[in-house]
Amino acid sequence: MALPYYIRKAYRGMRVVYYRAARTYSHAITTFKFNLNGVQYHKDFVGFGIPILDINMDGKFSIGKRFWFNSGKYHAMGGRQQQCYFVAAKGAEISIGDNVGVTSIAIICHSKISIGNNVKIGINTVIYDTDFHSLDARIRNQIPESIEGVRSKPVTIMDGAFIGGHTTILKGVTIGKNAIVGAGSVVFKSIPDEQVWAGNPAVYIKDNTYN
Asked: Which SUPFAM superfamilies match (predicted)?
């Protein structure tokens, strides 16, 4: 049986208050975490939820102006949402340009990941510039596992690109200017400017004619 209207209305009102408060406390806590991790950032970022950061003392993470992120299960509810992860290993560099918006993404960087200006990245997208494990089974199956020969190559996402939700972007990829990647794609080949790609593996669909 449905609860009385006024109770439901009060509940909705509490949700509005919570989300407004979330913007304030998210900014404060995230600022603290940015500083702890040596992140170069602008104070005009907008955050809902708290990201997870692990930036090596010899790694770099820089963020441009007007960065916007949603992090965690209560923000931008699109299913399978998680906290945002920003991880840079020793000697690695993550660079995010101006006016970039992301939701529940994971950026795991062992070499270099560069994101240009005006990029939008959908929910649950992951960007990896490394294989994590050796492709040589003899090395991979050592106990403890050796990281000898693990391959890492830079990832670049150019200005204006739009990455659909639940996409996986792998090492060595460049996604061109104003390119669009369809939701759920696995990208392991570079995408030219102004094209639409989608699928697993991602393939050319059409030119981006805005129609």
From this structure: Trimeric LpxA-like enzymes (SSF51161)
